[in-house]
Amino acid sequence: MKQYFQFRHLVLLLLIAASLFIFSCSVGSKSATTNGQNDEMQNHEQISVMLDSFNKAAAKADYITYFNFYTDDAIFTGTDATERWNKKEFMIWAKPFFDRGRAWNFTSIQRHIYFDNSGKFAWFDELLNTQMKICRGSGVVIRQGSEWKVAQYILSATVPNDIMNDVVKMKAKAEDSIINKLLHH
């Protein structure tokens, strides 16, 4: 009988130990998830602030600040089919706009930011209120040290579907020549 009680006591202790272990693992995993969520929220906020500052630098024609938001190997793609530049080429193209004291004025009116699993890369798309009316900015940002930098930026003009046929007719001549050049080059 004594052995039976010792055995029950041992089983009870093992159950308590297993329960404590399972509970501690569960709490640790919730804590890790919470920390991961906090990191993502912080990164989301940092990227959002960076993109707003990026747009404000262009609006203020602050050439140095604006281009410091790009990685050294960044690519910018503009609304015209011929506008695809590396950072150095884009800086040369944009310099006259900044020199006149006003470049472009974009304000985000809707923004979405997504992260890879490592937390070192993110991509975004946003609707922008611009002098061209609504445009879409999209791109890839990379964490470099404690900062987020733009590695790729794509600016697209939006076209309401109900006027798309009219817009296609208006741009056909200019873009047909680009298409022919690219196809036969």
Average pLDDT reading: 87
Strand order in the sheet with the most strands: 2-1-6-5-4-3
CATH architecture: Roll
3D shape? globular
What's the CATH topology name? Nuclear Transport Factor 2, Chain: A
> How many helix segments?
4
C-alpha-based Rg, rounded: 27 Å
Q: Helicity, in percent?
A: 40-55%
| Poorly predicted parts | 9-33
Properties at a glance:
Nuclear Transport Factor 2, Chain: A; 185 residues; 29% strand; globular; single chain; 52% helix; 4 helices; 6-stranded mixed β-sheet; alpha+beta
Structural notes for this entry:
With 185 residues, this protein is an alpha+beta fold. The protein has one domain: Nuclear Transport Factor 2, Chain: A (Roll). Helices cover 52% and strands 29% of the residues. The protein starts with a helix and ends with a helix. Mean pLDDT is 87; it is low at 9-33.
Summarize the structure.
The protein has 185 residues and is an alpha+beta fold.
Write the layout of secondary structure elements.
Layout: H1 2-59, H2 63-68, E1 70-77, E2 84-86, H3 87-99, E3 107-115, E4 121-130, E5 133-144, E6 147-157, H4 164-183
Parallel strand pairs: 1-6
Antiparallel strand pairs: 1-2, 3-4, 4-5, 5-6
